[in-house]
Amino acid sequence: MQRDDFHKLFKSTGPVVLPVIHVLDTPRTVRNVREVIGAGAAGCFLINHDFEPESFLPIIRDVRAAYPSLWMGVNFLSVTGKVAFPMLSELEREGMTVDAYWADDARIDEHGENLEATEIAKIQKDSGWDGLYFGGTCFKKQREIEPALYNNAARHACHFMDVVTTSGVATGHEADLGKIDTFRDAIGDKALALASGITPENAANYGDVDCFMVATGINEPGNFYDIDPARLDALMQVTRTIGQGEKS
Q1: Among 50, 116, 160, 224, whose CB has the most other CB atoms within 10 angstroms?
Q2: Nearest in space to 156 (alpha carbons), one of 115, 200, 187
Q3: Buried (b) or exposed (e) across 43-54, using 16+ Cβ within 10 A?
Q4: What is the DSSP string of 84-109?
Q5: What does the alpha-carbon distance between residue 84 and residue 105 come to, in Å, rounded to a whole number?
Q6: Exposed/middle/buried for 22, CB within 10 Å: 0-12, 13-18, 19+?
Q7: How far is CA 76 from the centre of its chain?
């Protein structure tokens, strides 16, 4: 997906903020979604950090029923698109639309083989699900890739996903700016998302990223699950400032 098209989709000139909600149950998730909506964020991702995907599905259904027009993506932790795309297709058939899927590991081979990524792409096509695919590339807690090969990995990733998605070395760790520069050079005008380490304090350093997928940087201190409205508001203000700068 071209980055201009991505920004037009979300009507945002600066980085698009998509808070990541680590779900435990429906009531707590719904409370956090209300914070996302109240802050004017474009949407959110839900992730099942503490239980298997099958127990996650009822919560997805509940949130979609509560907020039919919410832009909502999901991450089924510890599985790839092989498992996720059929589940997304089934939800779609039920009328429970999921707008995006984020995989921590899109199974990109920096050397260009990409047999598994190709298989996942076929499963996605056969499933009929047509939301946005955010594919983790050189991503935290996955197979380690040599920094010298980041360029290759990012370049190959463009062929298999809508939004190339990378991270710092771990949850809550900001990404090396050199890594972001390498990714941007490799993918050109394709959309780029960053899924770790963004905070209101450092977000301005990442103005060349199109999407911030953020959790710990906007959560209450020491709380893995609940959004701090003040910190989310502060991040939203920074991204608006970045967008205004791009206009001038």
Answers
A1: 160
A2: 187
A3: bbbbbbbeeebe
A4: HHHHHHHHHHTT----EEEES-----
A5: 12
A6: buried
A7: 12
Are the C-beta atoms of 109 and 156 separated by less than 8 Å?
Answer: yes
Query: Which token pair is 212?
Result: 């911030």
248 residues of the chain, pLDDT tens digit each: 999 999 999 999 999 999 999 999 999 999 999 999 999 999 999 999 888 988 999 999 999 999 999 999 999 998 999 999 999 999 999 999 999 999 999 999 999 999 999 999 999 999 999 999 999 999 988 888 999 999 999 999 999 999 999 998 766 678 899 999 999 999 999 999 999 899 999 999 999 999 999 999 999 999 999 999 999 999 999 999 998 875 43
Q: How far apart are CA 155 and CA 185, in angstroms?
A: 9
The alpha carbon torsion through 171, 175, 46, 44 (nearest 10 deg) reads: 140
Exposed (0-12), middle (13-18) or buried (19+): which is 107, by Cβ within 10 Å? Answer: buried
- Residue whose entry in the numeric block shows the structure tokens 């707590």: 28
How far apart are the C-alpha atoms of 192 and 171, rounded to whole Å? 18
